[in-house]
Every structure is written in structure tokens, then in C-alpha cells.
Amino acid sequence: MGGSWEVSASGGCSRKRRRLRLFSCGRWIKLDYWSMGQRQFCLGRALLRRSQRMVEFLSSGAVENHISAATAALCGLRERGPSVLFDSESLSFRFLIHPTSCINHALTIFLDIVLLVVLLFSMFIKSSKRVHVPARFLGFSSWQIVSAIFNGALGFVYLCFGAWNLEEELRNTRTALPLNWWLLGLFQGLTWLLLSLTLSIRAKQLPRQPSRVMCILAFLFSGVLFALSLFTVIFRNEMSVKIVLDILTFPGAALLLLCVFKGYKYEDGDEIISDDGLYAPLNGDSNGISKGNDHATPFSKAGLLSKMSFWWLNSLMKRGREKTLEDEDIPKLRKEDRAENCYAMFLEQLSKQKQIEPSSQPSVLKTIILCHRKEILLSGFFALLKILTICAGPLLLNAFILVAEGNESFEHEGYLLAGALFVSKTIESLSQRQWYFRCRLIGLKVRSLLTAAIYKKQLRLSNAAKLTHSGGEIMNYVTVDAYRIGEFPFWFHKTWTTSVQLCFSLVIFFRAVGLATFAALVVILLGVICNAPVAKLQHKFQSKLMKAQDERLKASSEALVNMKVLKLYAWETHFKKAIEKLRKEEHKWLSAMLLRRAYSTYLFWSTPVLVSTATFGACYFLKIPLHANNVFTFISTLRLVQDPIQTIPDVIAVVIQAKVAFGRIVKFLEAPELQTSNVRKCNMKNVANSIEIKSANFSWEENLSKSILRNINLEVRPGEKVAICGEVGSGKSSLLAAILGEIPNVQGNIQVYGKIAYVSQTAWIQSGTIQENILFGSCMDSQRYRETLERCSLVKDLELLPYGDLTEIGERGVNLSGGQKQRIQLARALYQDADIYLLDDPFSAVDAHTATNLFNEYVMEALSGKTVLLVTHQVDFLPAFDFVLLMMDGEILQAAPYQHLLALSQEFQNLVNAHKETAGSERLSDVTSAQKSGISSREIKKSYVEKPLKENKVDQLIKLEERETGDTGFKPYILYLKQNKGFLYFSIAVCLHFTSIMSQIAQNSWMATNVDNPSISTLRLLVVYLSIGFSATFIFLFRSLAAVVGGLETSKSLFSQLLNSLFRAPMSFYDSTPLGRILSRVSSDLSITDLDIPFSIVFACGVTMNAYCNLGVLTVVTWQVLFVSIPMVCVAIQLQKYYFSTAKALMRINGTTKSFVANHLAESVSGAITIRAFNEEERFSAKNFHLIDTNASPYFHNFSANEWLIQRLGMISAVVLASAALCMVLLPHGTFTSGKLF
């Protein structure tokens, strides 16, 4: 009886049906003297006699399946049943794969024994390498706790299952035979309990290799059980406790895999461990706490459950609800997510690739993938888990239809299906949110490292490369291209998950409609092939669009930089028309690309209808019957096909944009660089000359035939002062640039020893205070600082400013005169206390008296003992120099002291006489009788120390970027839609989308109500169904075109207004607004307006309508669900309000901090020569890292808040769906037809 009892359980019968069968042959229970064979024979005959009565509980097809399964699985059966009960498959193969067969049980017990042996072996052997576990690794991680709880509970349930089977055998048969069921449960439970607890809790104390081997074996073993059980559930419609347990072993084994491989993470690191087990800090600090982690995001310390549920974000969400978030309220990123660490990891991986393949240029794309391969694989795991859970939907629907028709496989199957639906949707929501969150985090890190790499590159870019990559194009690389590449990881996994989802869908198709699936496959392949030409056109148009955008941004940047000149000459109209012409060319490619995108979207949206046409047509001609279960399974699976097919156009568009953007950035990163290290030497000890140039030729284009300087021979000893004079264009500034290493040396040698300070001919001033410009990264020395101000004649000027030296000056020093900017440059150079001073005509912007004072105080006294090279046209100062260089046509014509040169060179005499005639009088400098400013040190200190401490009554010139506060409602959307008939196009698109939704509902309702209607022929059923479907696709085409046309018109209107505002703005606007802030508006913000907003705004409205329409349909089917759905909708609305208060502030901060990065980049591009001259590249790069992180932190918390909200809304949706399913189960049988259920 025991064997028969277990066979009945494996066949899927309920406990109630088991009692009926026992009662029908219950006489043998009283006859204890019967043999086992007699009892089994009696049971077999009773099963056959009772087959007719079982029709009341199961359909006839289900009875045959149960009897076949029961007969085939009788382990000790001596009397074989009729051969008709067995399928045509091989008995040995069936016994092997079926989870209830004896052979399967024996194989499972054997593998359990193998795992136990390996476990004992790993516990008793000694590791060849002693594993030292530091104190900080002795605690249990979140993965270990979850794995121990889950797998321990699973093993305990296995043990209970085996004990229960043994108890049933002993109670009913008075014997423990057959052994397979209870022995399997006990062995499996014992093995899984020991294995899971050992690997979860004590993995760090075990040798690494045996633990990993054991874990991999357990994972493969559970994978086999999972596959066999899933096969049985899908294709045999069988379910039992053992099958459920076998399925759960697979995620349990995956948890063990994570525990084991993450448990040895500290062994693979580079930590330095002292003898007492303490970690030596890398930076030499002994406190053990990095200052960079102060106020770090709670995500850095969050546990597994907190990360999965985004619970770590609650504190920020609460703060945003209580007050308007400011910049200081946003936590910093984790250390591993910051730009500096991402860039360092990128460089490290790049050097490894160069070592592996030294003869070839390493691939930037491959290097980025290798840097983030772990994160990519983890996000891919969540993506696969989401696909698996979403593909379970049609199977659950099919099971619900069978239950609604009265074909339950076992008692209370409906309750189990309702619970399975809730679990499936919960896992789907969790996995999808982790997938999207981790991909966006990868995109953030990639964007940060690319922005840092572009900034580093522009500081080293050669002058020949600057001809190809202008400042506007470099700005475009950061604000547009890096942004597009940062968005790509979000779509990366969709490039393969679409194919996987399609494959799963085709398997379910085949199960539902059989050979008609091949018709669907052909249509899908044809749709993808037909889209290939459209994708190529999109790639072409995207490339053209980016090129046109570069040209427009280059012209806009030039106009904005020189706006004062344009206004003085009244050239605004001409330059405005030039930019509008470039925008018109850009708009042409933009419209072409968006229209092709709309056509591609229509093509893929129509593919599901074509798939339905081909499949149902094949069913009609192949005479495949259409019933509720297979039709609705097919239609629900068709939605799984529809989702990836509809996503393919977006994926193609994103891939194309990322490919074009990545190609542009890689081309820039591979551009030639300056080699200043070959010129400048820092060691000044035992050096005879500070500057040595021997027979050198210099060329901007690195071409000897196009040399800008020829036959240069120059030796300057330490402390000498050299004047460089000559006519305009003779090469004076080029000689200083060659000494700085800016011009490539194509012939000869050049060596420069010592620290250099450089004053350019055109003043370069940063946005910030005067003090910051003078210090230029150096520490404050009050005495030296006061002397610097006095030597540069800045005392009187600073007294006139509202905040003295703490007055903020605009970009490029717009609120300073030319002389003031030059003197600030001189002060910056003097404060650096360099060895060599290169001064490029610094006195040209000051009056004669100030120039004389500067020469005496600055050049002759402050720089006494320093090596000075001064380019000047003021010959009055030349007698004070050690010797004078006379240059003509790129060559040094003469080099001698002033008097000798005046006597020997006619050209120099002509130059001096021309200056005297122009000046009108001779103004020779008297170095020994230099005038003093007459201001005491105490007065200087009072002016620049006490004055900033006074109350600030005047606003600074540079204003912080304004941003909205609080909830602005629909104001931004209304402003957008007001542009150029935007409301009209938007209304048309929304109405068409709503009509499309109604068409889909009508299509499904027609099929649901008439699929089992005998009065409706199959041909009529399919024709009406497909006609509605084709109508919906054409409606969707017009909806896409309306969105594209509306977006183009709105974008054209917005750009026109933006351009008018920029050219009509007063100069005070440009004085107080950094250039990067304006360029951020005309580059990245405008790109988002062009490409993203038209589709996003219509999509948002469409998704909202879809949600409410689905809720309405669900209400019509089961109005009882309103008792759950109405509270859930109220909770969802409150969650959204709670979310908006924080999310809007984060988005606004993200938008304003983005301009800081652009502004710093624009400043650095214009002042790259000065930055390199002062050797300040590292400091500017560090500031760039900080600005990138400042912008990345609100962006990170913004998309985290987005996932926080969607996950909670997903849980609410799961509750509503599970409640609706539970209502269908609880209500009396026959209340719902299969059509209503669908």
C-alpha cells in the first residue's frame, strides 16, 4: 500500500481523492495477513474500477494522465497494468527524468552522498595556504544570513517531508518499504542542511578550492533538479511538494555560490596586514577612517535587504518631505563610485591591456567593460531573473483557465496559483528594479570616467589636434556624448534579454498552438530584417546630426565669448542669422532621424498583429483547434513578444547614439598630445644655464618645412634678465611658447630647468575671487601676499572694490579693466615664487606711469635674482636688461646688451627710433630711484584683512544659478506645450493613443467572449480580431507621427526664443553668468528637448491611461477587487506625492550642478597654456573630479528615488493582482467564464 500511496501523491491527486481510493479498497486494511503483492494487485484493480467515478473530479484526459503516471511510477508493482496506460516514450528515459521515479530518486540519493563525502573531505583536510581572517571579516554578511535562513529552512522542510513519508508508510503498511520516498527526503534534507549551513556560515574557515568545487557541484545538481521539475510542471501539468522543493533548491544554490565566492574577497585584495592582524592604512593615517567617507550616502553601509528594498533612501526622502533640499543635504557618493576612483581603475585596466598587447592600441570599450564586468554580470543576473518571472505569467494564466473550467490538478490549486502570482510579480518587481538601478549606476560611473578622461585629455591636447577638436566640440563631448554613453548601460542588457524573452515566448507558443509557431517565427524574423535598412539610416542621420550640432555649438560658443564685440559693432543680427542657418541644417537631420524612429516604432508595433495573423491563419489551415486555454495562453504570450519587439526600436536608437558618441570620444582620446616632459626639468642643482636651446626648429604642425621658429640658439643663465623685442609677427610670443613646450621641437635640443611662472599676453582670469586668482592653489602666506599686492600696484584698485580681494570677478574678468587683469596675472606669477618668469608683454594694457612703477617694483626688485624673459615693445626698459634679443621672421637676428645692440644693429636702431617718434618723448627708467607706493604694511593689512570682515552690503557679481522650489505642478509642461501649436499635436497624440488602447481592449474582449461560441465560425472570429488589431496599429502610427511633428515644432520655437533672449540680453547678464552655464543650456538641455521630451511626455500619458484602463477592466471582471484596489490607489497617490517633493529638488540640483562641470571645462580649455605653464594640471583635475561628483550625487539619488517609488508601486500592483486572483478562487464555481478570466 505504501508504494501505491506514494504513486497517487506523485500523480497530483489531492488528499480527499486519496481517501476515496483507500475507502474503495479498504477491505485489505483489515486483512493484515495479505502479502504486499496481493495488496498492490487489489489496489490496481480498484483503481481501474473507480476510473469512471473520478470523472466527477477530473476530466477524462486528466484521468488518463493520472492513471498513466500512477502505473508507471509503482516501484514494487508485480502486476503490470495495461500497456495502453503508457506513452510511446521510452520507459527508461521517463523513469530517469520524472521527479517521482525510482531511478530518479536513486540518482538523487547518490549525488547527495557524493556531496556529503566532498563536504567531509573539505572539513578534515588541511589547507595548503593558511587563511587569516581579519577582524572586520569575522561578522556575517547579509548574503550569508539570507543564505543560511533560506537553505536551512529548505533542508528542514526536506527532513520533515521524509519523516512524514516514513510515518505514513509505517502507519498504513506496518513496513518501511519501499525506501525511495522517505529515504530521499531524509538524505536530501540532511545533505542540504549540512551543506548550506557549512558554506553559509563557515565558508571563510574552510579551504578555498574544495569549498568552491563543492559549491559548484551543488549548483549544477540543483540546476538539474530545477530543470527536470520545471519540465514536469510545464509539459505534464503535475505539481507536488517534492517538485516545489526541487525548484527552490536552485535559488538556494545560487545564494551559496555568492556566499562562497564573496567570502574570499579579502584574500584577493591588496590590503596590508601587520603581524597583529591590523590593517595598515594606505595613506599613512592611523585613525582608520577616511575623511572622504564623511557624510557618504547610506547606500555605502546598507545591507542586502536594505539595498533590495531601497530602504537606505528613506532618510533622504523624509528630509526632502520636511524641507526643500539644498546642495549640502545631498550625501556624497561611495568611494568606489567617485570619478577619481573610476578614472584610476580605468587607467589601471588600460595599462594591463597595454602589457598584454604592447604592439596594439588597447580598446577603450573593452577596457570599460573589464572595469565593470562584475557589476554587468550581476545586473545581467537580475535581468535574466526578471525575464524568467515575466514568462511565468502565461503559464499561470493557463492554470487559472483550467481551474475556472473545473479542471483542478489538486485540491486548493487556485489558492496556490494566487500565491504564486503574488510571488512571481514580487520577484519580477525586485529583479527589474535592481537591474535598472545597477545599470544606471554603471552608466553613472562610465559617464564620470569619460568626463574625467576628456578633461585630462584637453589639458594635454597638442595644438595640431586643437585644429580638429575645437572648444565647442570638446564641450559637446562632455555635455552630450558622455551623457548618451552614460545612458547606454541602462539599455545594454535589453540587447540580449529581448532575444531570450522571444525564445521563451516561442516555447510557450509551441506548447499552445503547436506547429503554427513556425509561422510566428518567420514573421518575427522578417520584421527584424525589414528594420535593418531603417536602422542604417538612423545611424547615418545620427552621425550627421551630431556633426551639425558640433558646428552650431562652435558658432554659438564663439558668439557668446565675444558678445561685447558683437554688441559694440551691432553685429548681433548677422551672427544670429548664421547660427539660425546652422540650426536649420541640424533641424533637417533631427527631423529625418525622428521620422525614421517613428516608422521603426510602427513597424515593430505592427509585428505582433502580423504574428497573430500568421499564427491564427496557420491554425486555421492546419486544423489546430482553438479553445480558451490555448488561445488565451497564446494572446498573453503575445504580449511577452510585443514588449521586446516594441523595445527594439528604442534599443536600436540608443545603440546607434551610443556608438556614434563613443566613436567621437575615442577619436578625441586618441588625438596626439603635447610632450612637455621632454622640455622642462625641475632639478636646478649644479646647472649652468636655466634655458638651453641649440640649433632648434619649432613647428605647430610638427613639420620641419613649416617651422615657425628656425635656427634658435639661446643660453640664459640663472638670474639673468632677457628682453625680447621685434616687430609684430616676428616670433616673440612663439619663443616663449616653445620654452613652455607648447610648440613641438622638430629639430635641435631644448632644455629648461626650474619652476616656471607665465604671464600671457591676453589675460586669463578664472571665475572666483581675486584672492583665489592670485593664490592659484598655493597656501596663504600673509606677509608674502601683502608684498605681492604692493609690488603689483593693486592696493588702490582693491580699495575701490566692495569686498576687497574677496570680490568675485566674472568669467574672464569681465568686471575688471584690462590693466587690472594684467596686474592680477602678474601677482599670480609673483606669488608662486618660481625660478623662471616668462612675461609676454604685460605692460601693454597699463598706462605709462603704472608701467614704470611695475617695471621698477616688480621686474627689477621683486624678481631680482630670478631668471626673467620679458617680451616688450617699450624700449625705455631695455637698458636695464642683461641682454636683448632682436627677432625677425622667426629667427633671433641679434642677441647683445642694449648699448652694443644699438651700435651694431640698424634694425634695432629703427625699432628704437620708431618707438620714440610714437611716444613723443624719451622715457628712460631709473631703476635706482624707483618710486614707492607710500602705503605702510599696516595699511595694506587693514585694507585686505579687516575689510572682508565687514558686513556685506553689496551682492557679488556672479550669481548662483536660480532654481525653482517646491511643487511647480504642471507649469513646465504647460510652458512646453504652449510652443507653436504644441497643445494641438499633444491632444491628437493622446487621443490616438487612447483610441489604440480601446481598440486593444475591444480586440481582446471579442476573442474572450466568442472563442467558445459555437455560432461564431473560426474564420469570422479571426477576421474580426485581426481587423481590430490592424486598425490599432495604424492609429498608433499616426500617434507617433503627431508626437514627432509636435516635438519638432516645439523644439524649433524654443530654440528661436532662446537665441533671441541670448542676443538681446544686456552685457550685465554675460558679466554675471558663467559661459559654461549658458553652453549647458544650448547643448545638453537642448539635446534632451530635441530627442527625449517629445516621446517621453506622450509615453507618460500613455502609461497612465494604460494603468487606469487595466484597472477598469479588472473592476469589470471582478468588482470585488475594488475593496483592495481603491485603498491601494490611494496609497500609490500618497507615495507619489511623498516622492515628488524629494525627486523634484534632486532633479533641479542635478540640472544646476551640471553647469559647474561645463563652466570649469570651458575655463580650462581657454586657459590650458597657463595651467600647464604653472604645472597645475593635477589641481585642476582634482577640482574637476569634485565637480563631477557634485553633479553625480544628486543624479544618483534621483534615479534611486525613482526606483524606490516604482518598486513600491510594483508591490501595490502585485497585491491588487493577487487579490483579484483570490477573489476568483473564493467566489463560487461557475461565476467566471474563461473569457471573463482573460
TrEMBL record:
InterPro entries: AAA+_ATPase, ABC1_TM_dom, ABC1_TM_sf, ABC_transporter-like_ATP-bd, ABC_transporter-like_CS, ABC_transporter_C-like, ABCC10-like_N, ABCC_6TM_D1. One of its GO terms (cellular component) is membrane. It catalyses: ATP + H2O + xenobioticSide 1 = ADP + phosphate + xenobioticSide 2. The keyword Iron does not apply. SUPFAM superfamilies: ABC transporter transmembrane region (SSF90123), P-loop containing nucleoside triphosphate hydrolases (SSF52540). Keywords: ATP-binding, Hydrolase, Membrane, Nucleotide-binding, Repeat, Translocase, Transmembrane, Transmembrane helix, Transport. Pfam families: ABC_membrane, ABC_tran, ABCC10_N. Its EC number is 7.6.2.2. It is found in: Membrane. PANTHER family: ABC TRANSPORTER C FAMILY MEMBER 10, ATP-BINDING CASSETTE SUB-FAMILY C. This is ABC-type xenobiotic transporter. It comes from Rosa chinensis.
